[in-house]
Amino acid sequence: MSGEEEENDAELKIGDEFLKAKCLMNCEVSLILEHKYEQLQQVSEDPMNQVSQLNLFKKVFGLAGYKNPDAVRQVREILSRHQLTEFELCVLGNLCPETAEEAVAMVPSLKTKGRAHSDEAIEKMLNKMLNDLSLVKRFE
């Protein structure tokens, strides 16, 4: 992004490094950290180190909206079906909006960034996506 352009997430002006990056939802990061924590437990013999690691990981795990690895995979699959950027996908996956209006308020680019659909078509797509996500959450 040139020095003259101002970042604006509503228009997906978030910097080239973010547009090209693979983003992770909090629940995906939580799964990675949980695996890392299990590895550290196996190699650490210092009980105080294990306790401090456990406290850190408990704080991080509290950020995850989905805890079941299958649910995390399903959430990414559902969001990936809708031609979202990685940024949009992760914001929606992390914040879990309940309505189409909430989703657009959280991610304004859903209506503005190069989508040639009518407002009604966008709302229908968002409602379908949010319904699918609510089913995952309900059965997690």
From TrEMBL:
Occurrences of domain RNA polymerase Rpb4/RPC9 core (ranges): 16-140
Record-level Gene Ontology MF annotations: nucleotide binding
Protein name: RNA polymerase Rpb4/RPC9 core domain-containing protein
UniProt cross-references to SUPFAM superfamilies, sorted A to Z: HRDC-like (SSF47819)
Family: Belongs to the eukaryotic RPB4 RNA polymerase subunit family.
InterPro entries with a match to the protein in the record: HRDC-like_sf, RNA_pol_Rpb4/RPC9_core, Rpb4-like, Rpb4/RPC9, Rpb4/RPC9_sf
Single GO cellular component term: RNA polymerase complex
Keywords: Nucleus
Signal peptide interval: none
Domain of life: Eukaryota
Gene3D superfamilies associated with the record: 1.20.1250.40
Pfam families, sorted: RNA_pol_Rpb4 (PF03874)
Lineage, highest ranks first: Eukaryota, Viridiplantae, Streptophyta, Embryophyta, Tracheophyta
Protein localization: Nucleus
GO terms under biological process: DNA-templated transcription initiation
